[in-house]
Amino acid sequence: MIIGGGAAGFFSAINIANKKPNAQIMILEKSDKLLYKVQISGGGRCNVTHSCFEPMQLIKNYPRGEKNLINIFHRFQPKDTIAWFAERGVQIKTEADGRMFPITDSSQSIIDCFMKEAKKNHIDIHINTAVDSLQKTKNDKWRITTSKGDTIVADKVVVCTGSHLRTWKALEELGHQVESPVASLFTFNTKDTRLRDMMGISLHHVQLSIASTKLKSEGPLLITHWGLSGPAILKLSAWGARELASMQYKFVLRINFTGLQTAEEVKNEILSIKNTNPKKQISNTILFHMPTRFYESMLLYSKIDTTKKWADFSSKEINILTELFFNSTLDIHGKSTNKDEFVTCGGISLKEIDFKTMQSKLHSNLFFAGEIMDIDAITGGFNFQAAWSTAWVVSESV
Ligand SMILES: Cc1cc2nc3c(=O)[nH]c(=O)nc-3n(C[C@H](O)[C@H](O)[C@H](O)COP(=O)(O)OP(=O)(O)OC[C@H]3O[C@@H](n4cnc5c(N)ncnc54)[C@H](O)[C@@H]3O)c2cc1C
User: Fold this and answer.
1) 371 alpha carbon to ligand 1 midpoint, in Å?
2) Residues of the chain with pLDDT under 50
3) Cβ pair 28, 3 in contact under 8 A
4) How far is ligand 1, taken at its centre, from the CA of residue 364, in Å?
5) What is residue 302's predicted lDDT score, i.e. its pLDDT?
């Protein structure tokens, strides 16, 4: 019995069927749509996985689940995902940033593949059927009660319900602990007037940190209507999901716009520009390859006379510029969803799952795959990869 007709549910069901062709496999899905998140994922293109083929590197993209996934990725990793889909006629391509999509650029290719495989393997699928409760029988099987009032007895149950409060509650009743859910992968809101007319500007490499915490990240930054987004922000939101929730998403963000490591290096770079361009106006010599509009707005904010020539800059003003570009601070008040791509941090506690089998340590014949567990990743195809890999291991042990 597979509970949940999403990515992890289908991948578990098909692989169990492939390994044990005579098994009777049923998927119960509470909504009227199968594979809904696959359909809307990656802006409708489905970012299936990431071109990262070293398990030790791969795990670094998982703020929750990092250590538990090492052995899982040694058994099924992005290379295996690509081969799995290729064997079933779906070719996957890599984009410049490492994200991988079906060559059709359509999530429908993944859905069609799963539906075809499910049909071929006689997997019995029921939509509009939620699992309401799970009870262990005397002979170690599971009695499942559905929203339709049916009772079904299964030898083995794989729970693939994603981040779903009611299922977590049912599992808590069986003694499992649920790490409380909070948002991950969100953008930061700010009312800082400096960013007012800068919507749409992106900076190719910034370093971020959050005051009074150890949270840090780096990468591209995008200025949006409400605040800040882009890979550097999303990474920070994922790694800081719990800490930022406890701060109620109110904190001070420090930004180094220069790409350089120390204030000393930044100051030396500014001094070298000053010395090589003494007769040029500061506004005509863009520092650190910044977008012109952004550079000009920052200078305006710092109240530096932009018509001044570099030769006339005092060392005090050089220090102001260093601070401006190396150590800007912004007050953050709240968060927004990143393009509807909400991922939840939290779920079934990983301490209670045997990662060699994906079986519950508390109950035999009860398995988990996908987002139901306290596993989540940064954006880039890593969340689906965790669903494929954990579902694969489930299929081996079932
Ligand atoms: C808009 C959006 C875009 C995304 N894009 C990407 C991307 O491009 N790449 C990436 O790696 N990740 C992406 N993600 C994350 C990714 O979709 C999830 O990590 C992944 O879908 C998790 O798979 P899952 O099978 O564990 O859970 P889900 O896909 O959530 O599937 C769980 C299923 O179980 C059903 N269910 C729940 N409770 C019950 C019950 N009691 N009984 C029966 N059925 C039940 C649900 O209705 C659902 O169909 C995206 C997420 C969102 C929201």
Assistant:
1) 7
2) none
3) yes
4) 25
5) 85
**C-beta 387 within 6 A of ligand 1:** yes
| Ligand 1 pocket mutation, candidates 101, 166, 382, 383, criterion most atoms within 8 A of CB | 383
Count of CB atoms within 10 A of residue 91's CB?
11
Looking at the structure, do residues 135 and 243 belong to the same domain, yes or no? no
Ligand 1 centroid–CA 111 distance in Å is 13
CATH classification at residue 207 = 1.10.8
Q: What is the pLDDT of residue 337?
A: 87
**H-type alpha helices, the chain:** 7-19, 36-44, 55-58, 69-75, 78-87, 108-120, 165-173, 231-239, 241-246, 263-276, 292-302, 315-326, 382-397
The beta-strand segments (E) located in 160-256 are 178-184, 186-189, 202-210, 216-223, 227-229, 250-256
Residues 149 and 33 in one domain: yes
Is the shortest distance between the CB of 159 and ligand 1 below 6 Å?
no
Domain boundary among 302, 325, 340: 340
Same domain? For 266 and 173 the reply is no
pTM of the entire predicted model: 0.91
Q: What is the CATH number of the domain that holds 60?
A: 3.50.50.60
My answer on whether 9 and 107 are in the same domain is yes
**Distance from C-alpha of 351 to C-alpha of 65, rounded to nearest angstrom:** 10
Q: How many domains does the chain have?
A: 2
The tens digit of pLDDT for each residue in 319-371 reads 999 999 999 999 999 999 877 667 889 999 999 999 999 999 999 999 999 99
Question: With a 6 A CB cut-off, is 342 part of the ligand 1 pocket?
Answer: yes
Same domain, 31 and 89: yes
Query: Is there an atom of ligand 1 within 6 Å of 160 CB?
Result: yes
Q: Could you tell me the residue range of the domain that residue 207 belongs to?
A: 186-340
Q: Which two tokens stand for residue 294?
A: 């952004």
* Same domain? 35 vs 128: yes
Shared-domain flag, residues 292 and 356: no
pLDDT, residue 152, reads 97
Query: How far is the centre of ligand 1, averaged over its atoms, from the C-alpha of 299 (Å)?
Result: 45
Same domain for 211 and 198: yes
